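Can't paste images in this forum, so I'm doing it all in text. The chain is below; anyone willing to post the predicted structure tokens underneath?
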Amino acid sequence: MEPVWLALGWLAYALLHSILASFSVKAWFARRWPAAAPWYRLGFNVVATVTALPLAWLIYATPGEWLWRWSGGWWWLANGLALAAIAGFLVSTRAYDMDEFLGLRQIREHDRATADREGFTLSFFHRFVRHPWYCFGLVIVWTRDMNAAWLVSAVAVTLYFAIGSWFEERKLIAIHGDAYRRYREKVPALLPLPWKFLTAEAARNWR
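Text version of the structure:
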């Protein structure tokens, strides 16, 4: 029954995360508690982190036979890809306004706006996938040794990224309009494709 509870936990996490990230909930919160509105983003990140901890514990606490384990050269390849994904994530943070992402800027500037203010910029990784962090996350979860708990979690995370990116892109289109629509036609969402990417020059001049 543990994998079933884990699947339900991931579903509850995804629903909570999506609801709290929606424009309508953020706008309602800002109207209801305007003085606390600058703290919403930081609070959202804290809730997202804290509610993920029981799921992480359940993954490691759930016993089960290994469905597959990487060994030999495959172990080196799998873990090399995971380390490369972690490095890519760390490098890619330079392309984002991390103060904005974490919610620190909103608190510092007493910003009560419900929409993100970060501009539309294309980093190196954005030339190949529209959601680099999701791509790195998929690499990490699918390069782990798999028992039933890990497999349920990997499938849940994959579905969440796929569905969540669709909702996220609705917001990005609302903010950036045609520039993002054209970008979406040129670059894949989660996994790079050899024939579908932007050149460095195209990314620099994208409007």
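The two ends are 51 Å apart (CA to CA). The mean pLDDT is 89.
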